[in-house]
Amino acid sequence: MTRKQRRLTMIGGSLAILAIAAALVLNALRDSIVFFSTPVMVAEKHIPPGKRFRLGGLVEKGSLVRGDHLAVNFKVSDGSATLPVTYTGILPDLFREGQGVVAEGALDASGVFKADTVLAKHDETYMPKDVADALKKQGHWKDDYGSKPDYNAKPVGTQGASR
Amino acid sequence: MIAEAGHYALVLALALALIQSTIPVLGARWRDPALMNVALSTALAQLLFVAASFAALVTLHVTSDFSVVNVFENSHSLKPMIYKITGVWGNHEGSMLLWVLILALFGGLVAAFGNNLPLSLRAHVLAVQAWIASAFYLFILITSNPFLRIANPPIEGRDLNPVLQDIGLAVHPPMLYLGYVGFSISFSFAVAALIEGRIDAAWARWVRPWTLVAWIFLTLGIAMGSYWAYYELGWGGWWFWDPVENASLMPWLAGTALLHSLVVMEKRNALKVWTILLSILAFSLSLLGTFLVRSGVLTSVHAFATDPTRGVFILLILCIFIGGSLSLYAWRASALKQGGLFAPISREGALVLNNLFLTTACATVFIGTLYPLALEVVTGDKISVGAPFFNLTFAPLFVPLMIAVPFGPLLAWKRGDLLAAAQRLTAAGVAALIAVAVLWAWTRGGSALAPLAIGLAVFVIAGALSDLAERTGLFRTPFATAMQRARGLRRSTWGTVFAHAGVGVALIGIVCETTWNSEYIGSMRPDDVAKIAGYALKLDGVTHRQGPNFREMAAQFTVSLDGKRLSTMTPSKRNFTTRGSTTTEAALLTRGASQLYISLGDTAADGAIAVRIYHKPMVLLIWFGPVLMALGGMLSLSDRRLRVGAPKAARVPRGLQAAE
């Protein structure tokens, strides 16, 4: 093989692998990404039942009902709308009423969000970033959700963090 | 006093780094050995001062001095001593201080052990190290000073995030940082080579041990982090394709590619331009990882308190270093002379293929990690790219790579014989086919993919062993001769065998865990029995006890197999009073390479506890594989060639030539 042929083989091989990778990426991006919505966005966008998405908002106070066999019902609210959620399983340690939550799943035919995963993605202020951004955008953000204590004043409250 | 002394030491380190950034470069330009050697003393002094600064912060944490914000926010007087120490880097400011400490450590090591480097190369390398160091000292001093005081000191601290109160924090971050920051050395060498416009096989020989050290630590650090997440977070997952995990995986992929291309450069003096690019990329991805984790663009357990100015500052550092080094590369790379020729089918060709697949896989991870951020900036839509994306892109790219792995070491340099290599791999191929057939028969009706994947893993392991058998002449010569040859083999050959086998071992673990993992979720009362994978787990009862800084509810389970009592397991839930948060402490029972895993959920009003039990077959292999890989790396590192073999540069006088 001449130098030119060798170089062409190399370049051709690299391009082929890159093309395959690009095809894989595009295909995967079409099928496997999950959008994030808050309850009011769900209402506006008319998300069809069965379409997977991530629901974020605050767990409405007093809405948590535990059923048999680890079934859990609660409502997620973003200040303007609420959406009922059902989940079967163990809730993460940081799941609390009145605090932020992100759940992944799909709507069923009756408009209830069936979650198969409940994430407790918090930073130190107990508020998932996606939820915080959405609430801010819709004007339902209260400053005390994310306020950082002033350490030269008296420290108030205790906070924690988790993945 | 201690806090101020620590702060002052850091300022002095910055001053030293600024001197080290400029004087040696001028020295190299004017060919003045005295000026070039300034870098030696400044690098060592920097190490001394950063170490002093770090020691000051450790002292503050150990003595629970709550007049320092960092200690107040992350410590508690009742916290066990080990967590008082590890808590130093269990927060943003402290972890950045650890980052620069390790950077200074590597700089100091180059200064101390770089005696055989050409004077100007060493001066340039240390100067580039100092550029990075200056940027990060400034970052710490301006945006994340760990030594800030509180005007009215509180009596008690706010405690460390309970999830981090674990022995994992003592091991995972230092290891990971040794890996991340270790790539700064290959980066500095690459930039120095570009500045000097000169690069040869000796350069690769100098860079390889440093890259290898970084890679070993990064491998172990990632594996450790994965195991920690597995047992600490309570849902038994070991890899979530979380952006923060991807941030560590990307430098690892680029670093692995770099290790392999350095071999080509050292042995055959080829792929110079590419190797330089990879050196730059590996460290750039480490910086990107630091940015993703520390800037607060992502929410995760790693993101601590977030502050936009920090994000902007790190982004600035990122742009300057990545943009600067890539521009330098674009400008100077053509000056580097191309080296040895080789046919596509050859050892070099195989290593190029390895590089192609690793960098492409790295690119898919890059896209999957950054696409959501980019989309949010552009359209405002929030999406998440999770495991399905990576399963569809990363996995298919790894399959051909794994098939190619055993072929590489069997091909000759320059021009290889694929057919001969295939013949030598017949035994490995047969072993793989047998594995597939046996598994298929055994798991009839199950997943068809799993036996194939395990067959692939067996092929990789058996291929590594056939390479060994081939080199020692096992089965062809008397056993004693083969043993003698095995002793005579170069350590780096053993390293290759171990590292490649490690990949196969990890794959077996991954496939077994994901395919044959069984799960039991339910609520249990005392004396209830849960059955899973042949084991019976009886809940004996629940006890409450008080820990140093938490209250704990522990449930005791008796595990039996076929009616025979094996052991007890006590998973627990800990309530940390100071932060008012709860952690789940899973209980693990190891049986061979498999594990039983119990974690507790909530307790219902009637006393029933929600329980999650997993049986994870062969799960330990997932981490045993990376340990094998790291062991292979260490064997390679101990190769005599890398220790004493580094030759003087071809023509010493040219080494003193300044860049034009």
Automatic annotation (TrEMBL), chain A:
Region Disordered: start-end pairs: 140-163
Record's GO cellular component terms: plasma membrane
Listed GO biological process terms: cytochrome complex assembly; protein-heme linkage
Keyword Electron transport: no
Gene3D superfamilies, A to Z: Nucleic acid-binding proteins
Gene Ontology MF term list: heme binding; metal ion binding
Residue spans, topological domain Cytoplasmic: 1-7
Function: Heme chaperone required for the biogenesis of c-type cytochromes. Transiently binds heme delivered by CcmC and transfers the heme to apo-cytochromes in a process facilitated by CcmF and CcmH.
Name used for this protein in its record: Cytochrome c-type biogenesis protein CcmE
Residues reported in the UniProt entry to bind heme: 122, 126
Pfam families: CcmE
Cell location: Cell membrane; Membrane
Family to which the UniProt record says this protein belongs: Belongs to the CcmE/CycJ family.
Topology term for the membrane: Single-pass type II membrane protein
Extracellular domain ranges by topology: 29-163
Record key words, sorted: Cell membrane, Cytochrome c-type biogenesis, Heme, Iron, Membrane, Metal-binding, Signal-anchor, Transmembrane, Transmembrane helix
TrEMBL record, chain B:
GO biological process: cytochrome complex assembly
InterPro entries in UniProt: CcmF_C (IPR032523), Cyt_c_assembly (IPR002541), Cyt_c_biogenesis (IPR003567), Cyt_c_biogenesis_CcmF (IPR003568)
Positions of transmembrane segments: 6-26, 38-62, 96-113, 125-144, 175-195, 207-229, 249-266, 273-292, 312-331, 352-374, 394-413, 425-442, 448-469, 493-516, 620-638
A Pfam cross-reference name: CcmF_C
Annotated ranges, domain Cytochrome c assembly protein: 89-295
GO MF assignments: heme binding; heme transmembrane transporter activity
Primary location recorded for the protein, binned into one broad class: membrane
Gene Ontology CC: plasma membrane
Membrane topology summary: Multi-pass membrane protein
Signal peptide region: none
Keywords associated with the record: Cell inner membrane, Cell membrane, Cytochrome c-type biogenesis, Membrane, Transmembrane, Transmembrane helix
Domain Cytochrome c-type biogenesis protein CcmF C-terminal residue range list: 315-640
Location in the cell: Cell inner membrane
Xref: PANTHER family: CYTOCHROME C ASSEMBLY PROTEIN-RELATED, CYTOCHROME C-TYPE BIOGENESIS PROTEIN CCMF
NCBIfam families: nrfE, PRK10369.1
Family that this chain belongs to: Belongs to the CcmF/CycK/Ccl1/NrfE/CcsA family.
Job description of the protein: Required for the biogenesis of c-type cytochromes. Possible subunit of a heme lyase.
Protein name: Cytochrome c-type biogenesis protein CcmF
Annotated organism of origin: Bradyrhizobium erythrophlei
Lineage: Bacteria, Pseudomonadati, Pseudomonadota, Alphaproteobacteria, Hyphomicrobiales
